[in-house]
Amino acid sequence: MADLWNIDPIPFVGKQDVKEGLGFRYFQPDKIVSGKPMADWLRFAVAYWHTFNQRLVDPFGAGTAQRPYDTFTDPMDLALAKVDHAFEFYRKLGVKFFCFHDRDLAPEGDTLRETNRNLDRVVDHVAELQAESGMTLLWNTSDLFTNPRFEAGAATSPFAKVHAYAGGQLKHSLEIAKRLGAQNYVFWGGREGYENLWNTDLKREQDHIATFFHKAVDYAHEIGLDAQFLIEPKPKEPTTHQYDFDAATAIAFLKTYGLDGDFRLNLEGNHANLAGHTYQHEIRVARAAGMLGSLDANQGDKLLGWDLDEFPSDLYETTAVMWEVLDEGSIGPRGGLNFDAKPRRTSFTAEDLFRSHVVGMDAFAAGLLVAAKMHEDHYIEDLVVERYGSYDSGLGARIDAGTASLAELEAESLDVPQANLLAATRPDHLESLKATVSNYIVEALAQA
Q: Which residues bind Mg(2+) 2 (predicted)?
């Protein structure tokens, strides 16, 4: 078979040369870290939409991307060629998982029936190459936001015919998930929100999307789809307010509508930042609720306030993320790290697609190695145990158990001088704590 990318498989080169090169310095799939192969902690997935469809456009300029399949002009021929290029890309990069929206794979027709026919033809080819390669579908989803019909939402659309179309599209997408063995199925509410409250029935829209999710669960049971349902929170873009604003908002929604037993969260770093949170915060919130499902791996530019989908390279952030994952024991029951990221417009060559994924994979591999060293030393765990030690006995234990009354708390506090309260606490040394994490990054990677 012809070399579609004209790129050799990406090797592990170690730290022999710190200068630019097309090879992994930290990612070694078989390296044992905290009792498991690195590949088991880092179930990397390639995002079909950014990697093979994104032309590197932005709001201020046309696309710059140069791709080896650009010679195809017929839409279906192009769609089938992209599948061939995608599976060769997965093999050469050394990943085992991929993700896609339904509309990433095939062009739409004039009707949903025609669109489904186009999609099924491409899915047939995906299934063939999946069987040959052993690739796993980490998750798929429905694109219920790109087409102009979804200008006011899909499941939350004020127009019943649009809601119905979204349901029909979802049904076929769930059938594809079943056929391809998807481990998860994601809902990202790209336009599920409002632009202006004056013309919005907020409660009715939320009721509609909750019903939509319940129908998805019911149909999955009907067809025997064994996939974890996920919601991916995002605070803004494109609507003024999205109903899945952040992890806490999404969890509250799921619990309100009785969906928390069927859904977990798929979290993204750039979305966390847009919500005013760190990525670690969103993961911790999901963990605390027992609802961590999967992760999208990217980052934003702290100087820009929109969703840039940069490949992750911030080692402090990847260390924080992987510390949470190690503490949890896994990303989620079936979760992975999907690179919902694209190169910058100046990195427009086909080779840059490989380079950018290598950067992201190495950043998370490095973060895993650092987090493993931190867990090995028990530094954070011991710090937290000591900080909350006053709740382990006496009055603190009764507070923890919920048996201390307000009268008891008052009696404990009435005659205590204010100065004694500060003296009874311990300094947190937050600046030193941040420095210690940075020191771990330096020392753990020097030893890797």
A: 268, 271, 307, 309
- Which residues contribute to the annotated binding site for Mg(2+)? 232, 268, 271, 296, 307, 309, 340
Q: What is the dihedral of CA 38, 355, 3, 118, to 10 degrees?
A: 90
Q: Tell whether the model's pLDDT for residue 53 goes beyond 90.
A: yes
Residues with catalytic function: 101, 104
Q: Tell me the pLDDT band of 236, cut-offs 50, 70 and 90.
A: confident
**128 domain residue, yes or no:** yes
Joined tokens for residue 306: 């929109």
Query: For residues 444 and 448, what is the distance between their CA atoms, to the nearest angstrom?
Result: 6
Q: Is 28 helix (H, G, I), strand (E, B) or coil?
A: coil
The binding site consists of: 232, 268, 271, 296, 307, 309, 340
Classify residue 107: in a domain, yes or no.
yes
Q: What is the rounded CA–CA span in Å between residue 234 and residue 241?
A: 9
Same-domain status, 386 and 317: no
Domain with 409, as residue range(s), is 380-447
Residue in this structure with the two tokens 């429905």, named with its chain if needed = 142
Place of tokens 């087409």: 147
Confidence band (pLDDT; 50, 70, 90) for 1? low
Give yes or no for residue 445 having a pLDDT over 70: yes
Instruction: Say if residue 329 is in the same domain as residue 415.
Output: no
Place of tokens 């509410």: 189
pTM (whole model) above 0.70: yes
